[in-house]
Amino acid sequence: DVKVTQSSRYLVKRTGEKVFLECVQDMDHENMFWYRQDPGLGLRLIYFSYDVKMKEKGDIPEGYSVSREKKERFSLILESASTNQTSMYLCASSATNYGYTFGSGTRLTVV
Amino acid sequence: QQQVKQSPQSLIVQKGGIPIINCAYENTAFDYFPWYQQFPGKGPALLIAIRPDVSEKKEGRFTISFNKSAKQFSLHIMDSQPGDSATYFCAASFGINNNDMRFGAGTRLTVKP
Q: pLDDT (tens digit, 9 = 90+) per residue, B39-54?
């Protein structure tokens, strides 16, 4: 069964901490994405990558960065966590011209 | 900017009913329109998708109706079951890599026994 695996289901971090969210896919997909999901707002794209070491900003990149050193791994970094970054974070991957496969999400709480 | 508008925000139907969820889009360059189903504690899963060269697509009890001129598409769930209770997201994208997929805000569907 193909998978997108997010390393943590739940995280609680303090304001100002640097936070790493990890995502690994085993489908050899070129494209990987990070979204945040908030009630009433749907899914909003933070960053995406269409190749190793490549990254593109999505709609809400402020306060975030990403890293893709290997094809299967795409990391989201919160440089200095703030309470307004409390959210559900979803990683997804896709092959060219197909729908996305999502991970189960990481619910991040910043206190 | 919300390029895909989804309604209703929530929907309650009885078992066997036919819930309908509607989406409208703005960008005429969109050429791929998927629907995702999300259960609590899980990530969204691709349910069914359509491209604008057809007006309808059926997979089991799920049907997408697509109206290109009106820039609208909808999801119909035939003979709905309590197990269909979930949040449904419509989306739209374009280009071979689907790198710019836009999601609707989601509809929380409850199917009562």
A: 998 899 999 999 989 9
